[in-house]
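Hi team,

As requested, here is the filled-out complex form for the 2-oxo-3-(phosphonooxy)propanoic acid run. I kept the field names the same as last time so the parser does not choke. Let me know if anything looks off before we queue the next batch.

— J.
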Amino acid sequence: MTRVLISDKMDPRAAEVFRERGVEVDQITGLSPEELKKIINDYDGLAIRSATKVTKDIIAEAKNLKVIGRAGIGVDNIDIPAASSAGIVVMNTPFGNSITTAEQAIALMFALARQIPEANASTQASKWEKNRFMGVEVSGKTLGLIGAGNIGSIVADRAVGLKMKVIAYDPFLTPERALELGIEKADLETLLHKADFITLHVPLTDQTRNILSRENLAKTKKGVRIINCARGGLIDEEALKDALESGHVAGAALDVFLKEPAKENPLFGVPNFIATPHLGASTTEAQVNVAIQVAEQMADYLLTGGVSNALNMPSLSAEEAPRVRPYMALSEQLGRLLGQLEGDKIKSVSIEVEGAAAHLDQKPITSAVLSGLMGVYSQSVNMVNAPFLARERGLDVREIRHDREGAYHTLIRVTSRDDKGQEKSVAGTLFGSEGTRLVEIFGIKIEANLSGDMLYIVNDDAPGFIGRLGTLLGKAGVNIGTFHLGRRNTGGEAVLLLSVDSPVTAGKMAKVAELSGVREVKSLHFL
Ligand SMILES: NC(=O)C1=CN([C@@H]2O[C@H](COP(=O)(O)OP(=O)(O)OC[C@H]3O[C@@H](n4cnc5c(N)ncnc54)[C@H](O)[C@@H]3O)[C@@H](O)[C@H]2O)C=CC1
Ligand SMILES: O=C(O)C(=O)COP(=O)(O)O
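And here is what came back:
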C-alpha cells in the first residue's frame, strides 16, 4: 500500500484527499530530525510546509521515498539536489497561497504606516496616546517591489488600487508585463533611492541573500518603511536594527527571519519594528487550497505517474500520463539499448521526435531516454535524476523535433556520438496497443521488441549462419523466445536480436563469439 507522511501542521483536507485516493496517511508533526530519519523509510511520499527541514541526511535514509510535496511555495527547506540525485520528485503549490501572502504584505504596510500594533498595545494599557501615533498615508507614495513574480504582482495590483506609484526591481520582469501591471521597472539602486516603502517578494537564493545588506540599507531614502513576507536571509537583521535605531529606517515589518522559529532576534524590542511568526500563508482559504492541491498532486504522481508543479522534473498531467507513458517506455528502451551497446564511449546524444511524437512535450521523452542510457551504469537512475546525472557527467543532450511524418506515424530516434565524432543511431515506434518496437539499429532496418534478456549479434550475411547459431544455442540449453533479423544493403553484414528465456552466461557468450561468421556479440537486458 502506498504510504504518505504529513510531517507539518496541515489542513485536515490533505489527509482526507489521500485517504479518498486510497493512499495510507500518517500525520506526525514536531518530529526531530533524528525521529524523522528513523521512520522516513516507511513512506513513499512526504508532505510538508516550512517547518520540516528535508536535509541530505534525511534523504539518505528515505530509500522508498518517491515524492516530497510542499504545501506552499518556498522550497528552501528541501535539499533539492540531494532529492534529485536520489530520484525523488519535489513539488510545490506555486499559486495556492499567493493572494494571502500578498494581503499580509499590504496589511503589514498599513500596520507600519499607522503604527497599529503599538497603538493597540498603548490603548489597551489605558494610555490613550492620540498625539504619539501620527501616521503617514500610503496614497501617492512610492512602493518599491523587490521581486515581481506571482506574489509581487498581486501586491502591485493592490498597491496601484491604493493609488501608490509602484516601481519594481526584477531582472525577469518584461517591459510588457510591467506595462500590464501599471508599474515601472527599475534597477535596484533607483528603487533604493526612490521608494517610501520597500517590500520583498523574491526567493532566497545565492543572488538574493542579503539583498538588503548594510550597504544597500544605507542607500535607501531616509524614512523608508520595509516589509519582508518572503524569506529571512534577504535582509541583514543587525544592519536593519541599527538603521531603525538611528531613525534612517522609519519602520520595518518582518514575517520571516534568518533563524526560525525566531524565539530570539536582534530586532525584537527595537522601536517601530513589527514581527509576525511566518504567517504569510496562514489564512483558512490558502491553507485549504495548498493542502488539497499538494495531496492531489502527490497522489497523482504516486498512483498514476502524473506530474504537476515539480521543481526537478517535467510536468505531465494525470490525463496526459497514459498517452505519454508508452512513449516514455519506448524512449527508455532506446536509451538502454544505446547505453548497452555504446557504453561510456557516448559523449553526446540527440533525441529526435517525428510524426505524432512531435506533438508531445519532449521533456519526459528526453528524461526517459537518459534514464535508460544512464540506467545501464546504476540501478538508482530514474526519470527524475537522469537529466541531473547526465549534466554531472558532461553529456551533451540535444532535442530535435520534426513536424514531418515519415514511414511511421510516430518515431523516436536516439543518436549517440563518441569522442571521435562517430554517430550511432537507433529508432523505434509504437504499434497501437501492441506497444513499442525497435525499427532501426545502426542504419539497419529491423523489427524487434526490446524486453527481458536478449542477444545482439552482428554477423556475416551468408547462408548457413542462422542454422549454426540455432544448433549452438540449442546444445547450450538456451531457449530462443523471439528472433529478429535485419541486413545492411551493402557490406554483407546482418544483425540479429534474439530474446532468450534466461541470461546467457559468459562461457556461452564466448562460444557464440567463436562461431564462424560472428563479428560481434553482446548480451542485453531490458526492464
Ligand atoms: N511568508 C510566507 O508565509 C510566504 C512566503 N513566500 C515567499 O515569497 C517569495 C515569492 O514567492 P512568489 O512570488 O510566489 O515567487 P515567484 O517565483 O513567482 O516570484 C519571484 C520573483 O523573484 C524574481 N527574482 C528572482 N531572483 C531575483 C533577483 N536576484 N533579483 C530580483 N528579482 C529576482 C523572479 O524573477 C520572480 O519574478 C518566495 O520566497 C516564497 O517562498 C511565499 C508564500 C508564503
Ligand atoms: O509557501 C511559502 O513559501 C511559505 O513560506 C509558507 O510557509 P508555511 O507553509 O506557512 O510554513
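Two things worth flagging: Residues 320-450 form a domain with the 60s Ribosomal Protein L30; Chain: A; fold (CATH 3.30.1330.90). The first helix runs from residue 13 to 20.

Thanks,
J.
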